[in-house]
UniProtKB/TrEMBL annotation:
Keyword Iron attributed: no
Gene Ontology cellular component list: nucleus
Membership in a protein family: Belongs to the NmrA-type oxidoreductase family.
Any one Pfam family match given in the protein's UniProt record, by short name: NmrA
Keyword annotations of the record: NADP
Residue span(s) of domain NmrA-like: 2-236
Keyword DNA-binding: no
Protein name (Swiss-Prot/TrEMBL): Predicted protein
Domain of life of the source: Eukaryota
InterPro entries: NAD(P)-bd_dom_sf, NmrA-like, NmrA-like_oxidored
Length: 246
């Protein structure tokens, strides 16, 4: 998406565009790359008179934390959103995905050497609930948004299929996979050493402010009402059990 001319060519004749940008990785220092690619999406959509622009956004962490915490791969998405809102694109919608359940298999969820037990690792406090859903379910939300442009025009849609703690996720894995699973909450220093400063800041943000700040519980209720087919975490584990057991 760094090639704006290529995007402009791809968008010719398109009614709508769904844009999702990704960071260079937690260890990356090229924070401007994602911002640049997001702005390219907006400019290419405007140039082609796209009627409906749907963008996967997130909150401005710096603003939400009162300037205490910096998580560029959240904040840069919000900067793209703010620029898109200024355009003359007739319909604009901003979908906020929660913590992805897909972060667990092969990453945060690990089978122990005996393969008879497992651990989940993250820098999220044991008692902190977070909104969760499956990556694939983003398609459910976005397709519904495109079908109803007037209803969702200008809206910030907080999404989630479930609202659980990481310990509750471990308990669900124990029940569904029949493998005793424990949650290990890493401290900020350990997260920084293993995953870098941005991951450390991100988990600090979750712990101190909440993924959706004060709106989490209501956001989950509203998302389940608008999009009833979103998977709960238990449904996700049942559907993807083989990914956990690799």
């Amino acid at each position: 998406m760094s090639d704006k001319n290529g995007l402009e060519e791809a968008f010719k004749g398109a009614y709508g565009v769904f844009g999702l940008t990704t960071p260079g990785g937690f260890g990356s220092t090229d924070h401007e790359k994602e911002l640049h690619e997001g702005l390219n999406l907006v400019e290419a959509a405007v140039k082609n008179n796209v009627q409906h622009f749907v963008f996967s956004s997130l909150d401005d962490v710096t603003k939400a934390s009162g300037g205490k915490i910096s998580v560029p791969h959240f904040t840069n998405k919000n900067k793209v959103e703010q620029e898109a809102r200024k355009t003359n694109i007739p319909f604009k919608t901003f979908v906020y995905p929660p913590f992805f359940a897909d972060n667990l298999p092969g990453m945060m969820f690990r089978l122990n050497e005996d393969r008879a037990s497992a651990m989940i690792f993250a820098g999220i406090n044991t008692d902190r609930k977070i909104p969760v859903f499956a990556v694939d379910d983003l398609g459910i939300v976005v397709s519904e948004v495109f079908k109803n442009p007037t209803t969702y025009n200008g809206r910030k849609i907080l999404t989630a299929g479930d609202y659980v703690t990481l310990k509750e996720m471990a308990d669900i894995c124990t029940q569904v996979l029949n493998i005793p699973t424990q949650y290990f909450a890493m401290d900020a220093e350990t997260v920084g050493q293993r995953m870098g400063s941005e991951a450390k800041n991100m988990f600090t943000y979750f712990n101190e402010c909440g993924y959706y700040q004060d709106n989490e519980q209501e956001a989950v209720k509203e998302a389940r009402k608008l999009f009833p087919d979103l998977l709960t975490f238990e449904q996700y584990v049942k559907k993807n059990s083989q990914l956990f057991l690799k």
